[in-house]
C-alpha cells in the first residue's frame, strides 16, 4: 500500500510540474497601466507563473505557447490581496498579526 501511495504521489507531482512549466500568452481586450492610467492593447507572456514580456505579436514569437483569448476583459495588474476592511475590528489578526 505504501508503494502505491508513493507512486501516486510522484505521478501527481510530475503532472503539476508539467503544468507549471508551460508558456501561456494572455490576449485580453485591453490592459490598464495603473501608473499612467492609460488603456492599451497588448499581449502578456507568462512562463513558469511569472510575467516575462508584455507586447504585441507575442503569438508569432512564441509559437509553442498556449494562447488564452480574453476578448471582453480588461486586465488590471497589481490588485493582489486587494480585499480590505477600513472599519471594524482594530486588532491585528491574520497576516498583519504575523508581523
TrEMBL record:
Signal peptide: none annotated. InterPro entries: Metal-dep_hydrolase_composite (IPR011059), Metallo-dep_Hydrolase (IPR051781). GO terms for molecular function: hydrolase activity, acting on carbon-nitrogen (but not peptide) bonds. PANTHER family: ALPHA-D-RIBOSE 1-METHYLPHOSPHONATE 5-TRIPHOSPHATE DIPHOSPHATASE. This is Amidohydrolase-related domain-containing protein.
Amino acid at each position: 500500500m505504501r508503494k502505491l501511495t508513493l507512486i501516486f504521489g510522484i505521478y501527481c507531482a510530475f503532472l503539476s510540474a508539467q503544468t507549471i512549466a508551460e508558456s501561456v500568452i494572455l490576449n485580453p481586450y485591453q490592459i490598464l497601466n495603473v501608473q499612467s492610467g492609460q488603456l492599451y492593447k497588448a499581449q502578456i507572456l507568462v512562463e513558469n507563473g511569472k510575467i516575462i514580456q508584455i507586447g504585441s505579436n507575442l503569438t508569432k514569437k512564441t509559437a509553442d505557447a498556449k494562447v488564452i483569448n480574453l476578448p471582453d476583459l480588461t486586465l488590471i495588474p497589481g490588485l493582489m490581496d486587494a480585499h480590505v476592511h477600513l472599519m471594524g475590528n482594530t486588532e491585528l489578526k491574520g497576516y498583519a498579526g504575523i508581523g
